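Thread: ATP-binding protein, structure

OP (GT): Posting the sequence first so everyone is looking at the same thing. Length is 480 residues per the record. Can we get the structure tokens written out before standup tomorrow? I want them in the notebook alongside the other entries.
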Amino acid sequence: MTVSVDMGADASGAPVTMDLEELLATRLLVQGNSGSGKSHLLRRLLERSAGQVQQVVIDPEGDFVTLSDAYGHVVVEAADYSIAEIARIAGRLREHRASVVLSLEGLEAEGQMRCAAAFLSALFDAPREHWYPALVVVDEAQLFAPAGGGEVAEDVRRASLSAMTNLMCRGRKRGLAGVIATQRLAKLAKNVAAEASNFLMGRTFLDIDMGRAADLLGMERRQAEAIRDLARGSFLALGPAVSRRPITVRIGDVATSARSGSPKLVPLPTASADMEQLLFAPPAAPTFAFVDPVPRKVPAEELLADLSRPAPEAAAPDKSADEVEAVYAQVMRDIVADEEAATRQPAVLFQDFQVRCRMAGLARPALDIADFTRRLSCARAGLFDVSAEEWAEALRLATALPDDMLGAFLLVARAAREGAPCPSDAAIAATYGTSSLGRVRRLIGYIEARELFVTRTDLAGKRSITIPRLGWTTGAAEAA
């Protein structure tokens, strides 16, 4: 299933969209001088993809915390927590798929790098069962992946650079899609920038930055000089998720705004008294406020509990149990019917499943990744209604097998129950998610060792499989 994010319009006024699924696989680099519209672009992407994918924003200036009220992002004020607590929060949000804004406002440069390194490392080191797709947006990426040494301690710089490198180089297989924005390509580490396959280049003036942009875009230096003429909010776009040829895109409007904006000229005040008296007047008597204007610090335990708490709509679905099961069954049919779904990982298909359920009117599916993986195995075997009574015993027997073998077992069980010919090795391989017939033979041998299958090959070389505990037997058929 393709989810397109509307980013704006090109020079002719035609809409320019970004393929969200392709973006998850190929990553994005945004570059532009201060004031070119980078943060506006990131905000547009985040707003238009909210609800479609988990979002994690590393925000050095606290500009993206306004996403919380409109889209439900959890705001983590990094200055209020220890490094160990930050790592725990990162691990917990991967488990519960919460969208988060990590605000680093209030920390010095070294503290921001130390915090970002711990946070990104914890995201990267999450256990395999929590490798859900997520957009990881890093604003001002040159702070966390500098091209050279700076004024921070060397161990902090290396830790931050290593975490950013892991995000961009190895994060894809863990479901982490890096979206990084920088003011200057020359200040960003080359091995971090080079891993992105999609580029949105905004206005820049320095020759060294235009040279780096030309190298990344595969353009001649003279062509790259057009970047100098880009208007604020316009970007040169290239990449498999947006366009195969360079196009100019004007980023569309956003619904939320940053806490800080560009400075505007305002009239100077007219002093009603002598300015020297105002400047050198003695301090006023202190006043006492009974209400503390400083926001309450949220303890780490409370924040972790908020991350793990289910959403209100998940606790109170607006459909009956039978209607929910019908939606699940239809969505599973649609996923299995998609030819591309056969080669995709369950974590990726789980994201597709949730989007399809919301489109079908189900506020939020109550299934977790483990339940979805089992249902997916059943669906690939042709069993969409897992609540059917006639399959209860077969499903009970299958609990003795690993989840990834459930589909192969049920495919054979379905043929045996209906007296149909025994599925071929190729059919079992497709259900098992492999192209190796050798793995299929080892799979059947493993299930036989658990005394769930009894395989018989007749003199004509045709195979039949019996499930003795159910009394079901397939017809004889060629295994090849």
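GT: Both are above now. Quick notes for whoever picks this up: Residues 288-292, 312-317 have pLDDT under 50 and may be disordered. The chain is about 40% helix and 15% strand.
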